[in-house]
Amino acid sequence: MAPPIGASSRPSAPSPPTFASDPDYLGPISATPQKMVEEMLCMANVGTTDVVFDLGCNDGRVCITAARAHGARAVGVEIDAGAVVKAKRLAKEAGGEHLVR
């Protein structure tokens, strides 16, 4: 018997985990676009006397930009060990590692 009109004969893909089905699921991870980071820091009037905290900092771009472009000290908090390694590498490459933790 043929499938109903509009039905796919392919098996459906598994649904992504949700908070309801997996208490360890952290949700989708995406970096804030660089243009948005720059605009946020400008709107906040971040300067050399400020300390910027970024919770869930991912690749560290908010902290790195705050340090590099505004001279601010910055602290990133991230639970993903791989993202921490990447953020530290990017901070070092940007020359702002002395301002970023």
What does this protein structure show overall?
This protein is an alpha+beta fold. It has three helices and two strands, in the order H-E-H-E-H. The longest helix is centred in the C-terminal third of the chain and has 14 residues.
Kindly report how far apart the N and C termini lie: 63 Å
Q: Quick check: average pLDDT?
A: 85
Strand composition percent: 5-15%
| Uncertain residue ranges | none
Give a short account of the largest sheet.
2 strands, parallel
- Output the strand order for the largest sheet: 1-2
Radius of gyration: 20 Å
Helix content: 25-40%
What class would the helix/strand composition place it in?
Answer: alpha+beta
Describe what is shown at a glance:
With 101 residues, the protein is an alpha+beta fold. The protein contains three helices and two strands. It has a two-stranded parallel ribbon with strand order 1-2.
Present the secondary structure layout.
Elements: H1 34-43, E1 51-55, H2 61-70, E2 73-77, H3 81-94
Parallel strand pairs: 1-2
Helix pairs in contact: 1-2, 2-3
Essential attributes:
alpha+beta, 3 helices
